[in-house]
Amino acid sequence: MFVLNLIRKIKGDIVLESGCRYLVSVNGELLGTEQGVCFFDAKQLVHLKIEAHYPLSLFQEENYRIVIASGDLFPIAFDSSELCNLRAMFGGVDNEEVYMMLSSASQIVTWHYSFKYCPRCSDVLTAHSTELAKECGNCSHQQYPRISPCIIVLVRKGDHCLLAHSSKFASGRYSTLAGFIEAGESAEHAVSREVKEEVGITVKNIEYCFSQSWPFPHSFMLGFMAEYDDGELIPDGVEILDAGWFKADELPTIPPKFTIARRLIDRFLLTQGIELDDSGLFFSAK
């Protein structure tokens, strides 16, 4: 006799709980639309070929999990013609908790496909039965999702702020400077180093502001403000193609509201007396 609150896959040993809400990835692509991330119940997923599912343990009020499926099938009642990429999904997010859930799910999917084998003995890793981890059946090593710490900084010079155009940006878009923290380095040192490497100037009075998980692919952004100290702006020509000092009323195209870069820019605008709706997502620019 089947236990009523479980739905068991006939193929394999994957068990889905009817009381859970599921985010779903099919062939590495998280399912969502421009209205945001999509949630499914177990009955909508019974026909999928499920590789693994992991807990989204940041959210205690309900039982959320990310299901990783392969094949050409989609959950029941999901219109695949409305499928969009992760950045477009973020445009439909309207609160911090949903952003965190979407970011967490996306990073877990990336990790699931990137770490298939044990780094100690090379045996195949499988999903842990209870934790957000993979484990090796041969040597018992456990592998947890990768998180890559980064800095992101807005540099001020009087009533101007420093914005740069990266080689990875769409035409005309400018943003703050950012980069990965290297082994053995403090976040503050990384701020100074990245600014010097990318645009050739030195900074002072480095101030931590706030942080944000950034799932492209598994970054953890530490946001800072800093003041110009010395030097002439010289973009490195590789990562940064152009950079300049901008007044509050002369800003180019800047990142959208859900980004930490935008909130750093908003914080600068508030110091310049610009009135903003500061009820945006994630954290106050103040």
The largest β sheet comes out as:
6 strands, mixed
Mean pLDDT, to the nearest integer, reads 90
Helix content: 10-25%
Our Rg estimate from Cα atoms comes to: 22 Å
Give the uncertain stretches in residue-range form: 1-12
What is the CATH-assigned architecture of the largest domain? Alpha-Beta Complex
Q: CATH superfamily of the largest domain, please?
A: Nucleoside Triphosphate Pyrophosphohydrolase
**N- and C-termini, Cα separation:** 58 Å
- CATH class descriptor of the largest domain: Alpha Beta
Quaternary status: single chain
Number of domains: 2
Q: Please report which band the strand proportion falls in: under 5%, 5-15%, 15-25%, 25-35%, 35-45% or over 45%.
A: 25-35%
Order of helices and strands: EEEEEEEEHHEEEEEEHEEEH
Q: Could you say what the CATH topology of the largest domain is called?
A: Nucleoside Triphosphate Pyrophosphohydrolase
The coarse silhouette is globular
Tally the helices. Answer: 4
Category from helices, strands and their pairing = alpha+beta
Please report the total strand number as a whole number.
17
Description:
This protein is of the alpha+beta class and 286 residues long. It folds into 2 domains: 9-114, Nucleoside Triphosphate Pyrophosphohydrolase, CATH 3.90.79; 148-271, Nucleoside Triphosphate Pyrophosphohydrolase, CATH 3.90.79. It has 4 helices and 17 strands. The protein has helices at 86-90, 96-114, 187-199, 260-271; strands at 6-8, 15-17, 21-26, 29-30, 32-33, 36-37, 49-55, 64-70, 125-127, 134-136, 142-143, 148-157, 160-166, 177-180, 202-214, 219-230, 240-247. The strands form 5 sheets. Strands 12, 13, 14, 15, 16 and 17 form a 6-stranded mixed sheet that branches. Strands 4-3-8-7 form a 4-stranded mixed sheet, covered by helices on one side. A 3-stranded antiparallel sheet has the order 9-10-11, with no helix packed on it. Strand 10 (134-136) and strand 11 (142-143) form a beta hairpin. The longest helix is centred in the middle third of the chain and has 19 residues, at 96-114. The radius of gyration is 22 Å and the shape is globular. The chain starts with 5 loop residues before the first strand and ends in a 15-residue tail after the last helix.
